[in-house]
Write a structure and sequence with these properties.
Layout lengths: L9 H5 L2 E4 L6 E7 L5 E4 L12 H11 L8 E3 L9 E9 L2 E6 L11 E5 L5 E3 L2
Antiparallel strand pairs: 1-2, 2-3, 4-5, 4-8, 5-6, 6-7
Length: 128
């Protein structure tokens, strides 16, 4: 499943609904309203994990994926002029921020370099 390029704005993020794992109450992510009848399944830090869909379908996407996307590689768009996306790994994630670590061996940056981004984090794209 590929994520949609849709961004989640702060107004939609404020209206998000939590999706919890039934077995233990763990936060899987959020469904975020993006249109009158469309909801976007998103990570705990606000990056899309699927296409907009009816609310129950968006919840099902999160329930099926679980927390697995957090272990996958992600692409981080960089603000530096001419800089391409950088492959990163999620180090820590919660509804207020996400910390990622450089995992792009060809970037020339130290692999221990970390960035903490506020949520929603539109600069991050899932790369399953």
């Amino acid at each position: 499943m590929n994520p949609t390029p849709a961004c989640i704005d702060e107004q939609a993020w404020a209206r998000r609904e939590a999706v919890l794992r039934e077995e233990d109450g763990e936060l899987l992510g959020f469904v975020v309203p993006v249109a009158a009848t469309a909801w976007l399944p998103a990570t705990v830090f606000g990056s899309p994990l699927g296409a907009p869909a009816p609310r129950d379908d968006a919840r099902t996407v999160l329930e099926q994926l679980g927390l697995d996307p957090l272990a996958d590689p992600w692409l981080m768009e960089r603000e530096e002029p001419g800089a391409g996306p950088l492959q990163v790994r999620v180090v820590e994630a919660n509804p207020s921020c996400v910390t990622v670590r450089n995992a792009d061996y060809g970037s020339g940056l130290d692999l221990d370099t970390c960035w903490t981004l506020p949520t929603p984090a539109p600069s991050l794209r899932w790369r399953p």
